[in-house]
Amino acid sequence: MDNSAEELEQPGSRNAQIRFVALAALAGILTGSVGSVFHLLIDWLQAWPRVLATHVDGVVLVAAAALITMCATLVSVYVVRRYAPEAGGSGVQEIEGAMQGLRTVRWQRVLPIKFLTGIVSIASGLVLGREGPTIHIGASFSAAITDFFKVSETERRGMLGAGAAAGLACAFNAPLAAILFIVEETHRQFPYTFRTYMGVIIAAVLATVMTQVIGGTAPDFSMAVASPELYLLPAFVVLGVLLGFLGVSLNAALMWTGSFAARLNGRVPYLYPAVVGLVVGGLFVTMPLAVTGGEHVVTSLAAHSASLQVLLALAVIRYVTMTASYSAGTPGGIFAPILALSMCVGLAFGGIVELVTPHGIPLAFGMAAMGGLFSASVRAPIVGVVLTLELTGAYTMVMPLIVTCMTANMVAEWIGGRPIYDQLLERTLRKAGIDPAAKGEDKTGLA
């Protein structure tokens, strides 16, 4: 812990602790309120293909949907590039960079642009999650609060973590996973003191309260499943191994498509997002399960059985549309798309297990895969376990989830995979011409 953090924790700092927790509470309330409106508007606007289908059909419907999504994508990309390039993508890497003192959260620009273009791009059908924007929005509210109220450097970094936790809690109605995300994912950047840790907790809780008041109290992916038999645990180990390889592959694909899109944009600036928008828009009306963030995909697949061929086809298509959508340059996260992709893979794996044993439960493998692929990609296995439990409400899955997530995380480590946000942050810093070894470690006291 750095000296400033030690000074802030002296016995006489009770009033300062109360003040900081109050600021974190404000960040949580603002994030939960605005984030809930953000989600509700996306859900409402994503009904546009059904409205369009009442006016046109056939080839005209497909062409019209493709053009609508293309236009939405291009508008979002233009606004982001023109006014706030850091608003593109998830935003988690921006917050981690800001906590290290390597990036600046320009909240005056990020808040309106992330909110508006995030709604446009995600509602258009692109395979992007809402959690990335809400995490960035939450941290931006924290940055705004620290600009208005005088705080120390340690408190500033702590407030960024509190806002990020509030954003994730709001996105998934999952406060415990949000708190653990800060503990596990940002352990190198977050300044651990009593007040900053309490700030994260209160921000996440109050953001969840606002989310439940505005949007309801049920877990986002409510599911019920019987506890799998103990003799099936080795099958979850095998699933974890598969997901470990898939997670490393997914991260590599995300980085490669991002580099490819950057090179193509250097030659023809808006060709890549235009093509992505056209393809995704066409799929939105012809194969809706292959696109969108994935929340409705998860619940639909969990409620209605699909054949092995359909599940594998969906997995391949969503793998491609996810990496392509994220590289387009619009705001959007990867958590929800990862959960949808993993549900396809897990259900397919469970269907194969069911052919071998009558006690195989495909849905149990689908739910375990949600945590496993998240763990392999983000490299936060505890968050993967808790997030899946909070989302589904299926606490009968504790043991299979732990086995799957730990296995996926270890396999990803052993084959040389790196956390996706570490890679995204490094790319962001390279583009900005920043050397973290020279500037970041000593400045933030993390050495």
Folded structure, characterized:
It is found in: Membrane. Its main location: membrane. GO terms for molecular function: voltage-gated chloride channel activity. This is H(+)/Cl(-) exchange transporter ClcA. It is a multi-pass membrane protein. The protein has 447 residues and is an all-alpha fold. It folds into two domains: 202 residues, Clc chloride channel (Orthogonal Bundle), CATH 1.10.3080.10; 198 residues, Clc chloride channel. It is built from 20 helices and no strands. Helix 8 packs parallel to helix 10 and helix 11 runs parallel beside helix 14. The longest helix has 35 residues. It starts with a helix and ends with a helix. The N terminus and C terminus are likely disordered.
Summed up:
With 447 residues, the protein is an all-alpha fold. Helix content is 75%, strand content 0%.
Q: How helical, in percent, are the residues? A: over 70%
SSE sequence, one letter per element? HHHHHHHHHHHHHHHHHHHH
What name does the CATH topology of the largest domain carry?
A: Clc chloride channel
Name of the CATH architecture of the largest domain: Orthogonal Bundle
| Total helical segments | 20
Low confidence ranges? 1-9, 440-447
GO molecular function, one term: voltage-gated chloride channel activity
Protein name: H(+)/Cl(-) exchange transporter ClcA
Pfam family, one: Voltage_CLC
Organism: Martelella mediterranea DSM 17316
